[in-house]
Amino acid sequence: MHLPGLYPAVGRHLHHPGGRCLDAHCLRIAGRLRGHGELTLRVPPLRLRSGLGPRQRRSIAVTGGQRRRPLGLPAPDRLRNARGSRRSRRAGRRRARSAAEAWGARDSRSRRQTCAGARRGAGAWPGGQEAFPIPPEARPEVPPQVAAYLSAPAAYLYAGLVDLDMLHRRLCEIRDGQDEGGNGGRGEMFFRVYGGGFHYSTNDAFKSYGYDTTGDYTAMQFGANIFRFPSASGMWRFGLAGTVGWLNFEPEAVDGPSSSHSNIYRLSAYATYQSRQGWYVDNILSVGWFNGTIDTSARGQAMRLQGSDYAASVEAGYPFALPYRFNIEPQLQLIGQHLGFHNATDVDGLTVNIGSQNQLTGRLGMRVTRPFDVNLGRITPYAGIDYLHSFVQGGGVLIDDVNFAAGKLGDALQYALGINGRSIRN
Length: 426
Description:
- The chain folds into two domains: about 1-130, no CATH class; about 145-425, Beta Barrel (Lipocalin), CATH 2.40.128.
- The chain has four helices and 25 strands.
- It has helices at about 45-50, 55, 145-170, 170-180; strands at about 1-10, 15, 30-35, 40, 80, 95, 105, 110-115, 130, 190-200, 210-230, 235-250, 260-275, 280-295, 300-315, 320, 325-340, 345, 350-355, 355-370, 370-375, 375-390, 395-400, 400-405, 410-425.
- Strands 10, 11, 12, 13, 14, 15, 16, 17, 20, 21, 22 and 25 form a twelve-stranded antiparallel β-sheet that branches. The protein has a four-stranded antiparallel β-sheet with strand order 18-19-23-24.
- Pfam families: Autotransporter.
């Protein structure tokens, strides 16, 4: 790359066109600059990773060096990538060399050096730094928001699981009403607020861009029965419920900090059969949509995150009575989910296609309850533990022309503490 004429160094950028140039062993920048400042090299994001062969990836690096430094030519450490994210701190290391030593290994016969990764005798270039080979376990760094793009599917799937699980919890209030002689009519309504934190441990390796994620999800849920059909053996109930939730998550990434904040809206329809012998089957269909942002500390809002959510769930359980009015209830649940993310272009010009993410999750759980009668009705504290297993591998996320693997939702243990309450009007 040649800088024609006297190029002002203050606040200026160079644009690397990418393409075949990225197959080079090193990038040489020549020319005359005046003034003091920072010279910035723009390399098309992510293309470096896809444009190199396996052998080149192990050794190529974007570094700075020069033959002379007239009139304040930027020092090597002042030549940087425009996005600040092309080279990972883990991906390699640089070491200052004297002017007599050039880039890479010294050629004793010609007293010249070769660029790191170049063949012996090729690409000789005098300069002040040497780029060492990249370790095999390393990988190129990506813009910080990429970690949030890859973590989003698992976070949204988790929020959907929580919403459906809490909608099943309304059955506790229904049973309390029956125990107290309620008729379970059309006036049967419910409202609850719930929330909690989560930690996701990825199944993908660091080299495959796997990210652990922490976050929290809080929501409020309300609904009511619309129809009921009693029989000699039990009762069917049909109703509607709405959910409004707030999801926050933050990947743990060496590429840089990023986070996401989203609003989630969901409308659900349910059909429940409850036997007079105690067992039940609860069926739910839901449709939802979400609207949020991906943010980074470097660029602020990087992209809006929008899409839709569809889910179906069936749960069965049977409560067993224990002494002192305790109840223990084993539960079995199967949940199918479909997420559809809208395509978008982020603040760095990356085209992001998270696409469709599908998951089938099974849950085996146990819940212990103990009701207490109070003046206005009944309250029922509960404690539960659930084991969740996902049967579908994580989908792909396409960013520019690079296809990343999103982490599988995987296996999880879920702990719950809460209180259900029912008010009765005389």
